[in-house]
Amino acid sequence: MSRPVTQLDKSDVLTGLFASWDALDGLLSGLSEEQWRTPTPLPGWDVHAVVAHIIGTESALSGVPTPDVDVSGLAHIRNDFGATNECWVRHLRGEPGAELHQRFLAVTRDRRKRLTDMSEDDWLAVTPTPAGPDSYGRFMRVRVFDCWMHEHDIRDGLGLPASEAELVSPAARLALDEMAASMGYVVGKLGGAPDGSRVAIELTGPLARVIRVVVDGRGQVVDDFGGLEPTATIRVDGLLFTRLAGGRVAGAPVELDGDHEVGARIVEHLNYVI
Q: Where is the MDMPI C-terminal domain (predicted)?
């Protein structure tokens, strides 16, 4: 049986995506060339490379072909997605940071217009996405997640953590919505939680929410456990959860209740992001 198509409100998703681009613009404004070349938590990528990757993805979505660059043999490339990303990074590597910033503004300005003008039918149409075939709207929520994660990669590299006001945003909410949609796979498939498991992932701090997963043949995200208690609870700061799931940090403090073995195994396999 095919998966149901994810139908998302266009205005809501675009508000989050545009807010994410605005946050990146503010973060990049006035950086020195040295700051542009500061390493981030992503292997082989500095701030310049992260922004080049975002530019590349948005350019590709506007129909610009991937630059012909040989990236074979680079150790941090694990798949075709990574190879495509790296082509853009290498292609733009020699561009000064200030010019790269202007390129970012130009491509996102073009994308804002294209997305704003997109018809509802095209927004709901099924298309290939990093999460498999789904609506174009789902693809754009994935873009919110990607851009929001990369904002925090840049912040981590530069030592400029977000304030609570900067952290609690429409982009953060949508990024966590996108991550929550993958937790059935993480809990049931990667984490190997057995049938009958009820796993509560309790996020604390400014990004507080509870993600609930039941396992019955496969993991599935649910609104509640029907009055039953979770069999395993994982409690972790919301921002730290996103960094763990993205493979940006390891060995971070996580509180477990209930079945510790299952909870620990899920945490060990939490890094699911491509």
A: 174-264
Q: What is the pLDDT of residues 211-267, one digit of tens each?
A: 999 999 999 999 999 999 999 999 999 999 999 999 998 778 899 999 999 999 999
Q: Which two tokens stand for residue 190?
A: 């990667």
Count structural domains, the chain.
2
The CA distance from 6 to 26, in Å, is 31
Q: 160 CB contacts (<8 Å, ≥6 apart)?
A: 27, 154
φ, ψ at 62 (rounded to 5°): -95, 0
Same domain, 119 and 252: no
Reduced to 3 states (helix: H, G, I; strand: E, B; else coil), residue 221 is strand
Q: Distance between CA 13 and CA 9 in Å, rounded?
A: 6
The answer to whether 185 touches 159, Cβ cutoff 8 Å, is no
Residues 102 and 225 both lie in one domain: no
pTM higher than 0.85 for the full model?
yes
In a shared domain, residues 196 and 145: no
- Left if phi > 0, otherwise alpha if psi is -120 to 50, otherwise beta: which for 270? alpha
**How long, in residues, is the chain?**
274
